[in-house]
Amino acid sequence: xxxxxxxxxxxGSGPGDVYITDGRIAATAAPDAIVVDLGGAxxxxxxxxxxxxxxIPAKTLGITADSVGVNQGVPxxxxxxxxxxxxxxxxxxxxxxxxxxxxxxxxxxxxPGLVDGRHELVDLANVDLDRSQAVIEAxxxxxxxxxxxxxxxxVGDNGLKPLELALELGERTGVPILIHTGNRPPExxxxxxxxxxxxxCSHAFHGKPGGIIDEEGNLRPAARRAYDxxxxxxxxxxEASANFGVLARAKExxxxxxxxxxxxxxxNVGGPVFSLAVTMSKALALGFSLDQVLEWTTTAPARAxxxxxxxxxSVGAPANLTVLRVVEGQFGYRDADGNELNGHQAVETTHxxxxxxxYVI
Length: 361
Hints:
By secondary structure, this protein is α/β, with parallel strands linked by helices. The chain has one domain: Alpha-Beta Barrel (TIM Barrel). It has helices at residues 65-68, 88-96, 129-138, 152-155, 161-173, 188-194, 221-229, 244-252, 276-285, 290-295, 299-304, and strands at 3-6, 9-10, 14-15, 18-21, 24-26, 34-37, 42-45, 48-52, 76-80, 102-108, 143-150, 177-181, 200-202, 232-233, 321-334, 340-354, 357-360. The chain starts with a strand and ends with a strand.
């Protein structure tokens, strides 16, 4: 389908029509192009959510990719370790190959992923680096890195060993690590000290004990060291992993997110997460600018996962776009710990365009 996106404003360029021909952004309109009137909406590079759970066999987590992807205005999502090496072929066949949304993946360092439950690293026999390396090499078109969940209920008595193994797998394959942080042990600070530039700490702004802000309201030294050397701090909202107070205090101390993601799954899509757009709206309510919020949901995540082409809006590039509005009004938001925040803006997506195909929200 060839398109003319009319009456919108291309982010960073101002008002004007956008032409899409044969799935790519074009300099002129095709003769058979269909006109889509956007009524002044903002056209942005396609939103990217780098932390989702869309593999249905993952117990109590998996949600249909399209329901949180193109149906919510997000052309590209990344599943965060729902599948490990054991089930990756199934994940590819049942999710990647069937959904309209572009689905990429962080491969779980544990071969069962989350299919057998949420304690995948209690037994390190679940880690087979050779097998996982082979899966990454065979699926580099969709695997962007390695996921490791580093909280007490996941790793049991294994301490930092699962992170060491994930880092070894990352070194072998040349990919970054996405780390889940949560209830200690291990200490979040110890995990942060092990991460490399370009690795991502998801749930970086959780409100659990041992987080990046200490009991006196100061930034923990390990958080500063990690941030300064290029470890990326991701929101990863989830049902228990984003705290308004931590985000606000970190902002005061000069620590802002590098990326905004949802950690959306079956258990939180009905609240407190809802969607990437709602998570973006919460960031606006915290006082972050629209420019920051769009950077953290487009260009920055594309760079973090090594897919800059997904946000290229130049002529000839594949058309991956989101159409959205920022609505003024009175809105109430709630974080993962039940804290409430009032805002006067809300992000509302109206269209997703993935490789030239348009989806109306």
